[in-house]
Structure formats: C-alpha cells, structure tokens
Write a structure and sequence with these properties.
Distance between the termini of chain A: 66 Å
Structural class of chain C: mainly alpha
Order of helices and strands of chain C: HHHHHHHHHHHH
Distance between the termini of chain C: 59 Å
Oligomer: heterotrimer
Shape of chain A: globular
Chains: A alpha/beta (595), B mainly alpha (339), C mainly alpha (331)
Strand content of chain A: 15-25%
Largest interface: A-C, 74 and 80 residues
Shape of chain C: elongated
Radius of gyration of chain A: 26 Å
Amino acid sequence: MNAVANVDDHRHTLLSVSDLRVNYGDYCAVKGVSFQVARGETLALVGESGCGKSTTAMALMRLLSGRAELTGTVDFEGLDLSGVSDAVMRNLRGNDISMVFQDPMTSLNPVLSIGEQIGEVLRRHRGLSRQAARAESLALLKKVRIPNPEARLDDFAHNLSGGQRQRVMIAIAVACKPRLLIADEPTTALDVTVQAHILQLLKDLSEEYAMGLLLITHDLGVVGQWADRVAVMYDGLIVETGSTEAIFTTPQHPYTQGLLGASLRLDSDTHYARASLPEINVQRGAGGQIHFDLHSYPRAAKALEPDRDALPPILDVRHLRTEYKTRQGPVAAVDDVSFTIRPGETLGLVGESGCGKSTLSKTILGLIRASHGEILLNGTNIAALPEKQLRAYRPFVQMVFQDPYGSLNPKHSVYRILDGVLKNHGIKEAQQRSQRILDIIARVGLPPTAVWKYPHEFSGGQRQRIGIARALILRPSLVILDEAVSSLDVSVRAQILNLLADLKDEFGLAYLFISHDLSVVKYMADRVLVMHDGKIVEEGAHDGIWKNARHAYTQKLIGSVPVPRYPVADDESVPYTDSAWQDLPVAMLLSRFAI
Amino acid sequence: MPASTLYQRFTRRFRSGFSGPLVRALPTAAGVIVLNFVLLQMVPGDAVDALVAEAGSATAQTTELLRQQYGLDKSPLAQFGDYLVQLGHLSLGDSPRYGMPVMDVISQRLPNTLILMGLALAISLGAGIALGTVMALWAGQWPDRVLSSAVFVLYSTPGFWIGLMAIVLFAVKLDWLPAGGDSTIGAGLAGLDAFVDKLKYAILPALTLASFFVAIYARLTRASVLDVLSQDYVRTARAKGLSPWRITLRHVLRNALLPLTTVAGAHLGGLLGGAAVVETVFGWPGIGRLTLEAVQAREYKVLLGILLMSSFIVILANVLVDGLHTRLDPRIAARLKGG
Amino acid sequence: MRLQTPSSAPVLTHPARSGWRQHVGSLMLGRWAPGIQRLTEPPHALPQAPRSGWPVACALLRSPAAVVGLTVLLLIGLMALSAQFWYPGDPLDMVAQPLLTPGEDWQFPLGTDALGRDLAAGIVHGARVSLLVGLTAATVSVVLGSLVGALAGYYGGRADRVLTWLIEIFQTTPSFLLVVVVVSITQSTVGIIAVVIGLTSWDTVARLVRAEFRALLSADFVLAARSVGYNTPWIIFREVLPNTVAPIIITASVIVASAILTESSLAFLGVGDPNTISWGSMIGSGRDLLRSALYLTAIPGLALVITVFSLNLLGDALISALNPRLRGRTA
C-alpha cells in the first residue's frame, strides 16, 4: 500500500498531517496517516464505516475522549496541534479551525435557541455584546441562505428542517471566518435534493473565505463533484492519495478500484442483467499485510422471454389509497397508485423520505389497511381480506427491511428466527426444517455455524443476509426490498446486490426494489417508478427514464448530487434502537421507592 | 420593554403552561377520590357501631334508626354521592377523638410537615445535584468511586435507623442539637429567635428525611449528566472552543436536570411517607405523626382524610412540576401542539 | 449460475389450510418458477448449539460487586430458611436475663433485649420475614404490573387510556401511607403486608412494561413477524416478551429492596404484625433504650443495611450485565 502524495506547491499549505496515530488502549483506530490541505483547496477523505476517517477528523481538533492517545504531528500553519495546551486549543476551535458534524439534529442543543447558539461562538472569540452577536447571527443566517432568518433566530432546533439545521451548523462553523473547515459527512443525514444545496453552500463559503475544506465522506459521487484532491482510507491507513481526476480515471490501488467499481453512478451503463458489481476480497497475511482482490463476473444477458409478457402479473395494484389520521383530518400517504409487476421482473420504486414508499410496501404486505383500491396478488384481491384469510397469502409476498439492526429480534438465534417461520407455516418435522434452514443459510452466503449465533454477533451486511434468508425461506414469488441496501457500506452493498441478483435467478423471484438512491435503482431495476407525495409521477424503463425524464420532480431528483446512504428517518418507520426504558436511566424510573 | 407587558408575557406562558397539566390531572384526582371512598367502605364497622360501642350497647332498632339518621343505610352509590357533597363543602367528616372536624385536625399539623418536606427537598436537591455532577465529571476516577460508595450505603439504609443513629450522635453524644420536638417548650421566644429555635429542631429531622433522597438525586444526576456528556451537542460546544465551565453549566446541566424535574413530582409521595417515619422518630408534630396516632386510635376518618389530602398535594405538585417542565424544555410545547 | 431442475411444486402442506390456498400455490409457483434448487453438496448436520444463558451469567459473575452481593444474599437466604433449625421455637419467647450485652454470655452471642428475648434468634427469624415480604411483594408487583403494562402497551387507544389512569392513581397516592391505611383497615399479618406492599409498587412495573411494549411494537422485527404471518399471541409471547424480561428483572430486584425497607418501617412504627418478630420491630422496641443499650437498635439495623446493600449491589450488577450500554451509568 503505497500512498501517493501530490502536493500543489504553489498553493499555501494550511494543514500538514504526518504519521498521525490514534490508539484506544490496545485498539489502533488510526495507524499512521499523512496528508496535506492547502488554502482554498478541498481535500476529500474517503472511506467506508470503521476506516477511521471521522476519528482522524476529531483527532485534528483534539475532540476525542480522554482515553484516546495521539501521536504524530499535526502542523497547522506552523503550530503543532498535537502538542499545544488545552487553553490554546480552545482558542483555535471555532475560531481558526471549525467543524460541521453529520447529524444536525443531535448536534444542536435542544433547549437553546438558534440565535443563542450562533451568538455563543461570536461572543467567545470576538467578545461581542449580546445585541451585536444577535445582529451578526442574523447576518450569518442570511449568508447561509436560510429562508426567513429573522424568525429563525428565536426558534429551536426542532422547529427547523434537516437542511435548515445543517445550514445553522455551517453558520456556527464559519462565524469567525476560520482558516480550516472540517466537514464530517455533512450531507449524509439529508435528503437528496437538499444535499446539493448544502455542498454548494460549503464550496461557495470556502471560496469566499479562502478556507481549506477537509471533506469526510463515504460517497464517491460527492467526492467526484466537489473535491479537488482525494485520500482513500481503509482500516486506519491511507491507501491512495491524488487529484480527483487522477483517482477517478486511473486509480492505482485495488481498494480504490473496487470502491469506484462498486459505486453506482447515474452516468454509467452497468446493469445487473449484464454484469455483477466488483466485490473486494480482503485477505490478511501473516505479519499484518493486507491483500486486496477484486472479483466480478458477467451475467448472461437474459433476453426478455417472449412469453413473460403473456403471463399474468404477480402483483397488480389498482388505484390504491392509504390514509392515516392526523389532527387536521385524514392524510393520504399513498394516493391513487397503480402499477403491475410481472413474474421475474424487478420493479424499482424511487422516492425521497416521506413520499409514501414505506406505507405502500406495508399496505401491499397487508400490515396496513388500504382505504381504497385493490391489490391483486395473482388475481386475488388481498386488500379486502380479513386477517385470518390474509395469512394464507403471506408466504407469497415477503419483505426485506432497511435496518439490519432492528429487523431481527435480538433475543432469537438465527435458527430460532428461521425455524419459527417454517413452523408457523406448517412444516412439522424438525429434520425437514433444519434441512431447509441450512439450505437457505448456505444460499445467502453464510457459514452453517451462523445458525446458532445471535444478531448482535453479525455485521450489518451479514444481518441483511439473514433478513434475506428469512424472506426467502418460504419460497415467495415476490420480494419487497424496502431500502434493503441503504444502510450498508459501498463494498457490502455490492455483495448484497450481487446476492440478490443471483437469488432472483435461482428462485425465480420478482422484486419490488424501493430506494431513494437513484443510481442503485438504475442498476438493479428493469422498470422504474418515481413516487412523490404519495403519487406515482413517472414510469419508465431503467435506462430510458434517466435520459428522458419528463416530470419536473424526476428531473429535479436526477439533477441533484448522488444520493446519501443514510436518509432521514421516515415518520413511517421508527428504528428500534434498544428500548425506551434505557433512554431514561433505570434509576430514574425506580427512584420513587423511598422510605 | 415596559414592566406590564413583561408581566403579561410571563403570566400568559405561565398560565398556558399550567392549564394543560391541570386539566390532565382532573381524572386522576377523581380516581383518587373513588379509591378513598372504596377504602372508607372497607373499614370494619362504621360510625354507628363506634357510637354504639361508646354508649355501651343498643337495640337493633336503635341501631337501625341511627343508621338512617346518619344516612348509612343507603346504597353505596348514594353514599358516594353524599361523600362527594361532603367533599364539595371541603369537609372530611368529624373526629370524635379530637373533637373537631377532620379537616381542622389535619390543617393544624400540615404546615409543620410541609416545612419539614420543603427543607428536606432543598437539602437533597442541592446536595444531590452537586454530588452527582462531581461524580459524573470524574466518572471512573477516585472522587467518583468514593462518592458512589458513600451514596450507595446511604441509599441502602432505612431512614428511621439513620434518624436514630443521628439522635445518638448529635443529640446524645455531642449534644449539639435537640433530640425531638419542634420547639423549646416554655421558652416563650418570638420572631427571629423563634425561627432560629425551630430551625435547630428541624435540622436533624430534615437531614434524616433528605438522606435517602440525596442518594437518589446524586445517582440520577450522575446518570443524566453522563448521558448528556455523550451527546453530540456537547461535542459541538467543545468544537466551538467554549470553556469547560460554560459547557458544564449552560449545555450539560441545562439538559441533564430536565429529566430530574420529570421525576421530582413522583418523589413527593415518597417524601410524605418518609415524613411519617421521621416525624415519629423525632416527635415532630406533623401529619406523619398524626397518621400513627390515628392508626393506634382506629380513627379511620382521619387516616383516610390524610390519605386524600396527601394524594391531592402530590397531584398539585405534579401539575406545578409539569408546568415548570413545559417552560424549561421547548420541545414539550411543540410536541403538545403538533401532536 | 445454478442448474435449474424442474421439479414438482414445493409442498407446504398444512392440514388445516383450505384447499383454495394450495391451488393458488401451485398456480403461482409451478407456472413461473421452474422449481426449487437441489443442493449440490450433501446436507451438513446442524452444528453444535452453545448453551444459552451462559453469557449473562458470565458477565454477572465477572463483577466483584455482584459476587459479593450474591454471596451475602445467599447466606442470608440460607439463614432464613434454616431459622427453625438454629433457633427452634418462637423468637418472641423470653429465654434469658434481660439486657445482656453482646458477648457477655456465649449462649446469647448478640445479647438479649429488655424482655429477655434472644437477639440472635430475632435476627435469624427476622431474615425470614424480610425475605418473605420482599419476594412476595416483588412477585405481586411484577405479575400485576406486567399484565397491566402489556395490555396497555399492546392495545393502545381507549384501553391504554383507562389503564394509564389506573396506573396514575396508584402513582400519585403516597405508597407508604397507602400501605399503612390498608393494613390498619384489614389485618396486619405478614402475608397481608407483603401483598399490600406489592399492590402499591406495581405501578412502576406497569409503566416500564408499557413503555417497552410501545417501543417494541413499532420495531422492524415485529413488523417482520407480522409479515411472516404470526398471530397476535405468538408475537406477544415469542417476539416481544423476551425483550422485556431484562428491565422487569431489574425492577423486581429494586422492589424487593424497597419492600424490605417498607416492611421494616411499618414494624418499627408498630403497624406491622404484632405476633411476628421482624428487624424493624426489634429496632422499634429498642428505641426507648437508645442511650443505654445501643446494640438493641444497632444490630438489627446493620442486618437491614447489609441485606438491602447486597440487593442493590445485585441490582446494579444486573443492570450492567443485562445491558452493556448502561454500564457505568448508575452509581
């Protein structure tokens, strides 16, 4: 792994990191990282989750917890940040070096107003009075292009939308005109259409203030559009550095090549029917060497079988409408939606958060009652069936959920999860059940020893495999994939998408592939629907739709930056992150016992 | 800004903050009344039996007549109606033993208990929050370990035993403070002297009552502060370069103390119960000691009157705490409005 | 690419299923999907299953606090169970000269009280009472609270509102006063005291279980369970309940400790069972001799402190063991 450094000599080097290491006791998070950021330049630090990029960013500002040990040099215009005192560091933070974090909702204090939080940093570093700070905060809100800034000053974080909160965070970060701005996944938690604006704002501000911008991201699309130079990180080390053009056109390192290959882009022609995505195979040799291997294979382009169109559709949705009650009256989450899915077809459904796609999938599964319309599953309208009769149809439509952490019962082993499904559908013999369980586990690429493990012992990608196994063990005809790969890293996503395509062939499945990520849908789908505000606004073949989008919303979607992988949580699906009682310290609930 | 509009703005928010919880408390208050009535009905014998017992004996006829006179022969539902009417007149019945209405008996003693509880609450909140914050900021290091162990022992010790040991230590061995009662008898003090005198008598009982709650608030504060310290907005505050003091006070504590206000109302019931024990140990003349006297004398009206009054006090305190909480945490108002 | 061998449609037979479904099944799968693949390798045997419950026990035993607490509790439990063996008869009997200090007479190692009753016998028998009351109260609270909380959390809507109203009534009534009132209205025997203490503590369990259920029912894995076709009892008992066991256990341990303290307070005040000795009643009767015979109150008090302390140690250790996220968060 040779890091190739390209330093632009004529630009003034702002930050120079040499051999930075971060250790938490025995665990080494960052293993010797070196890079430079010049004034007015944007350096992107790219990597998947767990590679140490966020740790590096936090180490630069010495924001890591006390247990972390830093070694190495962090040279910031002549000052070695790794050695200065805490007091000096505090003077630099927010003043000369600022940071924008990933999740603006949790990064803003919920009980202080926006104006107070922006004013705070001005009063700390510029010694402004309260009124002067307030005036300056207003000016900053205007600068970050927040609509109606006067009203926003006294609002709280929960009154603002995700994009607006991130603008506020940016306002706080640039308030004192820092020389270096570190943005840690600034758009990952935001919607597609908002991302582009935020990144544009960051770029404009960095040019206006001649700041160096260190952009931390996992999204190569973002890198390609906004960064000048790129450093690729894996497992605590930088594997490749270079200008964006060099990295994208002639990547040297196999990991970079794999990442680029596995990153789906709107302008590429890859499609699941033609070839699989490259999978990165990592082997650790003796002595700590890591060997990367790329692996991909073509798929025989299946000519569309002539009789496929003649077959009746597996799923025929007609004028479906699902309402839910609010204080203002019933609101239609799904509004007059109609489409069909033919056997063996993958129908892609694209939409941003809140467009109703989750509600749609739950309605098709029978988990929510539709208010109007029909859902014809091979001719039978299941929308009108009572629960008891509906059970008989459940094996034919199954779902893979988005959140690999919430979709498996933490108290059940893999065996128990799958066994229960089979038992519930009448397979009485234990021998038969265990046979099928081993079978499906092997099919999804997990070892047989996995059956006795509990969900927390697996990684996110492995848990999704278990979820796929659960969906497929009943041999359904239609599988709904509701943002099934949205929470996964790029390389893991490639593996899962390959798996899904292979299984579709083997099992003869039809897919309803729901995602907010246009490029993934472009790769995986045969036909595409675009959903907005509960309605289907556009429909087309997987390649044509991107080139000839007719509806304004589709065009807007396509025109936005390549999409984030962690969309803002829908109101429609509440992620289960441990339980409510654990959020409230147990002692609190139990403290009423007093005598 | 003119003072009158400030006042108007404050009271408007004040009122709107409290009216919600008040309305929500009404069903609970109704339920408490029902519960008390049910308990009243469960009392063995009734007022007439007591009268008859006092008189010596009586014929069945006389007993029946007396029942009619007191309205005790009606159906339970009708009796409930009577009970409600009685409550509407702010009366809890009469107590033969004390020779005055139950309400008067209770109101005589109530202020003493409230003084004790107020003092105990102030001590426990102040000491508890301070200790808890120290424990959290030095979590895992020796200040935390020492304080946590001390707090743990305090948490495991019954209040009455602490009271007894405190009497032995401070009143007997050291003779710093009086062992019981609420004022020096026959001293005839007035004004500030009376106040200081009363304080001398109140300190040990208040400290005893506070002991358990100091432990509770210390533990709660520690857990809450630790939780807040791991939140992203504290990281943002550090990234702004703010001083540690400012971060602790303005960002950490401001959020960490919010959950405390949520549970503070629930603790009032425990404080009342604790007061019963502490007042008995120290001979403090409040409604706690009244409870014991009533139990021994089988004065069920007084007992149930105390139960009802204390439940209402807890409900009222919860309403106040809820209203306060709405003012302190802007998210609640939004949640209530938006739904 | 795997081989596709045509074969008969899969057999998912269930005698109770209607024929209509099977007809549909063969239509759907037989017509389009060529069939189910055969494994190219011979089926493996199921790998060995590890013993369950082991990791929790291990985590528990790793903390020294938990070991200490557990050991002390076991000793106290043993002492309580064998009370009749060590001190047969009624500990309230007068057996010796009054006011023997501890150590004066080796036959009465902890001394005697003002009425000549053996303190050691009182301690041993008192342990029985305390543990009995603690465990009974916790059981009553847990059973009642879990039931109410589960129903409220599962059904929501009107049932939830009614049950929450019920919970709030018990929450706002001061529990100690309620116990005193109820015990004085009914009889004051140990059994009734235990049950009544349980009846005043169930509201916390109910709130906890209700919050758990509400969170769990919106979890993805419950949705997945519904989409697989599990019926409601299955979902409640197999999917949701196992995830609520941990907080219930922790609450139970706290209730045991609190019940012991409550019972001792009742006995101290003289409201407890007059025919049974309890640590609280021993402290109560020794109160008049506070200045002269401190040991009469100090020894039973220490017994109380040690027992409750061990219970709290166990409770804290349980919190850490059953949930790694909360480790270090409580005192």
